[in-house]
Automatic annotation (TrEMBL):
Organism (species): Bombycilla garrulus
Gene: Cptp
Descriptive protein name: Ceramide-1-phosphate transfer protein
Subcellular localization(s) per the UniProt record: Cell membrane; Cytoplasm, Cytosol; Endosome membrane; Golgi apparatus, trans-Golgi network membrane
Biological processes per GO annotation: negative regulation of interleukin-1 beta production
Keywords on record: Cell membrane, Cytoplasm, Endosome, Golgi apparatus, Lipid transport, Lipid-binding, Membrane, Nucleus, Transport
Amino acid sequence: AAMAAAAAFSLTEVLDAFRRCVTEQREVLLEPYLSGWRGLIRFLQSLGAVFSFISKDAVAKVSLLEGLCERQGFVSLQAMVREELLAGPAALRARPDSGCRTLLRLHRALRWLQLFLEGLRSGESGTSALCTDAYNASLAAYHPWVVRKAATLAFRALPPREAFLEVMNVGTPQEAVAVLGEAIPYISDVYGITQELFAQHKLLDLP
């Protein structure tokens, strides 16, 4: 079953989605953003239970945002932020199901994935160390101690780099590294625009 799940994922779908994400006006389109996330979730799921504490949360957040986009007709991240801020910062902070808060959770996880994928591409250290470093530099700050402890333990059991490159389903390890090299700048760009937008509106610490 693991193999069947793995076959459903290809890194090119993540690349294509994030490539479509940013408009000429530097707006982040939510449809390709969520589509890129669905690909990243499949990538995490194809690696087994190790990442389930992140992928389960991401699945919930993605479907919440999809519902929101359908109901509210939000096309871009900027439009969603503008709309939700109309109620005032205090009202926004009080809403646990706001699009801003939900997207912020995905945004933090995207940073971890971006760092981890960069590490996989360069291959400078083992996957466990890479993943732990990426986690400590991103998501760890927002997780309670017990989750952090479980995560770092789980990362010790990660397969070697070849297994990750294979799961990407884009050919040889060299080809996987090349596609990573193409995909990462798009992911970084989306991350950077989101970070700037949230910082500008003081939304980076939404409870």
